[in-house]
């Protein structure tokens, strides 16, 4: 429960900085807000700890899916969804790819129950609650929108494609392990000259 509060309130702090940068931009408009979550101690109760947050009334929408596989049209097409994706991109860039706010969901621009993935365990003393694979999936799947451009964020697709291209070039230049010839002492090599290596 403490971890849940820490995750959401850490993401909330990033969202405040994002809002301070985005709101003054002409045409950007309203910015997503992560609502605070509070830890309550109830010593007389069977479950002594609980969380309390503002009730969100309206249509609850998942703008950012945890595993990156589901296509969410409300995320892609709505203003709130696009701004949530831009927020993820902004956090990713601000932390040099070390942290990603995931699982953005809520009503309109008010978000709750978010997750955080970190590139390294204990990044800035923070324990994420999501797998590092979410960062890799985000880097591969994120499509910049007009809000990313307004904030001057660098395209992740270009960087990701460069990484993949470099990896594929390396793998092409490395010989296949089945074609590598192992050095054999001269004495053993001479009588085997005409023996097929396939058995």
UniProtKB/TrEMBL annotation:
Its main location: membrane. Belongs to the protein kinase superfamily. Alpha-type protein kinase family. ALPK subfamily. SUPFAM superfamilies: Protein kinase-like (PK-like) (SSF56112). Keywords: Cell membrane, Disulfide bond, Immunoglobulin domain, Kinase, Membrane, Repeat, Serine/threonine-protein kinase, Transferase. Residues 187-199 have a biased composition (Basic and acidic residues). It is found in: Basolateral cell membrane. PROSITE patterns: ALPHA_KINASE. Residues 162-199 are annotated as: Disordered. One of its GO terms (molecular function) is ATP binding. Its EC number is 2.7.11.1. It comes from the Eukaryota. It holds the Pfam family Alpha_kinase. Coiled coil: none annotated. This is Alpha-protein kinase 2. It catalyses: L-seryl-[protein] + ATP = O-phospho-L-seryl-[protein] + ADP + H(+); L-threonyl-[protein] + ATP = O-phospho-L-threonyl-[protein] + ADP + H(+).
